[in-house]
């Protein structure tokens, strides 16, 4: 009985890592769509989001069923409950990537990002992709040090977001209110994507230690 439970638990963990890998693909394609006005990349981001949502629902059901049938305790229960919350975060990450891609689609064939801010958006895309990749490793190995490093790395995205806000609110902004709104939305989408990766890391620490780090730790 225990061996079968361990196999199911390992299967859920492995599928959670795969789901996280899909968010990395989604955010990379979304960033390409925005920076290159690439509709193929936008379509791919939307497709991956649909896949994340479908697989996330199935994985959530498996975790809930395992809890109901096996009544796990201690770390196993923390892993399953945290995993279900992580699934919700990963589904949201997929949706945020799709939102970014949709901004590019809505303004096609015109570019969304002014030339002066392309480097900042590119850096946000790199940061978000790196956070998704790091979250995979945190989920795979349950490494507390790596989880803490991911949490601390979130400041990079926050700093980039502040740069975007400063640019759109400056007196020398030349692109109008609609463009400022688009840039603000893109920044917020990237920020929230990374915030969800941080939440995943916080829960992995909870699985390991039984204590949930505060958001500002």
Can you summarize this structure?
This protein is an all-alpha fold and 217 residues long. The chain has helices at 2-36, 39-70, 74-107, 118-141, 144-169, 176-209.
Taken in chain order, the helices and strands follow as HHHHHH
Mean pLDDT: 96
Percent range for helical residues? over 70%
End-to-end Cα distance? 39 Å
* Approximate shape: elongated
Indicate the proportion of strand residues.
under 5%
Task: Throw out a few tags for this protein.
217 residues, elongated
Give an overview in words.
- This protein has helices spanning 2-36, 39-70, 74-107, 118-141, 144-169, 176-209.
- The mean pLDDT is 96.
- Helices cover 85% and strands 0% of the residues.
- The protein contains 6 helices and no strands.
- The protein is an all-alpha fold and 217 residues long.
- The chain is elongated and about 65 Å long.
- The longest helix is centred in the first third of the chain and has 35 residues, at 2-36.
- Helix 1 packs antiparallel against helix 4, helix 3 runs antiparallel to helix 6 and helix 4 packs antiparallel against helix 5 (144-169).
